User: What shape does this take?
Amino acid sequence: MESIETLNERLSEHFGHDSDTNDPIFRIVWSEEQFEKRLVSYTDSGIQLLFPEVRKVKKYPYIRHLYVLERLVLVPEDDRNELAGLKKSYEPIWTYCDGERNPVPPIWTATKFVVDTLYAALGKTSMANYVEDTSQEEQERRIAKLHDELFGNETETTDALRYREGIVVPSSYGDKQ
Assistant: This one.
């Protein structure tokens, strides 16, 4: 697996930077490390404030322990007050998880596919490079491979090994030599 730094470099090289800020258009981040300044009307315990105030809050309280693919976008004029006047913001595009919301590692081919699909939906590019004149079996094999890259090998063992929460015991362990 490529490091997140390497994937972010590839995203930056492949999809570019914002012309005003030089920030990358896309980036991959860990959900637990993202915070933003927001205008809030309630305290963390739920008490309503007399006057709203700007506080630094978790950006993704609803996305727990996952990598997130974000895109830099313009904040609509109506929403700028809530984001403390911010004109551009990174917004989530994709979370790297399987069907049961278990984390999967980000990989380049899946990340590029998600961004290409987004651009195709916006009418900026086409998905023609993902279409081939091949047999039905070959297409099914490519789809299965892409599915595995997007959603990972959905076993607890591989997830534990990937996130260094598990160990591997060699089959020869305990054999006398």
About this structure: The chain has a mean pLDDT of 83.
